[in-house]
Amino acid sequence: MPLLSIIIPVYNSEKTIGRSLESLNKMFYESKKLAEVVVVDDGSTDKSMEIVTTKKNALSPLSIDIITQENKGTGAARNFGLKKCKGIWIFFLDADDELAFDPIPYLKKSPDASSLGFSVQYYKGSKYKKSKLPVFINLKNHLDVLTAQNAFTASSIIFKKDLIQSPFDAAFLYLEDWSFWIMNPLIFEKMKIFSSETSAIIHAQGGNKSTNYIMGGKYRKIVADKILTNLGGRLTHKQKNNLLIQSQIGMIMQEKKIPLKTFLLFPCDAVLYSKLVIFFILRKKFAKLDIYGDY
Hints:
CATH class of the largest domain: Alpha Beta
Radius of gyration: 19 Å
CATH topology of the largest domain: Spore Coat Polysaccharide Biosynthesis Protein SpsA, Chain A
Distance between the termini: 36 Å
Strand content: 15-25%
CATH superfamily of the largest domain: Spore Coat Polysaccharide Biosynthesis Protein SpsA, Chain A
Order of helices and strands: EHHEHEHEEHEEHEHEHHH
Helix content: 25-40%
Shape: globular
């Protein structure tokens, strides 16, 4: 049984998947023997899988398995990878991002942890934009933190597979990781933080910024509303208000009007409330700005 499974969903990523696979060589030779990589082809129609096949030998002794499904989105691809992988620990890496370190030594010295949190760095092109530090979460503060923000990218946490209670919601095309963290509290039961270590380099792609912003808003509302419905009876008044505010920020991002009573949702997270005000004031400008992981 591998110590670590690295799951990489791939959909038409011929321009970036080679770089992502090459980054796995940051793992030491002995570490590669303890890991597997599961590449999930999410119905690609380009040369992505040809590139993966070509790169496999250069990653030896790292095991590379390719599994294929019809195009269903990132959440469904990760679920398929989770179903097929054999590792004790799980790490998600997107096909346009890079592994920045060797995770195996951290797993060896943290056998009793439920998850390990690391920093990530955001780049646009070759330019560094910012770093995002990990947030410490435990079972007590889990919903307080995660209703107020999507505290992690998928590649900033390594966690134990047997702690998964709910799969990714395949209906979410954006922010599927936010829902996943919320619905799997046991991942954070014994979390350890390594703020000084960077796990991944996140590359912001140059797609249609305005369209992505609006879609991000659409799914911010969809995810917040669904979590509110699913967990309503377990949420405190503050946590419910956090999700209501998240939903209304999603409306602003879609350039839709929100009711003034949104600004009376107390108690709520203070930082989230400040985001609500800023999004509202700058609603005409935000779609044109470079925003990285602002959830």
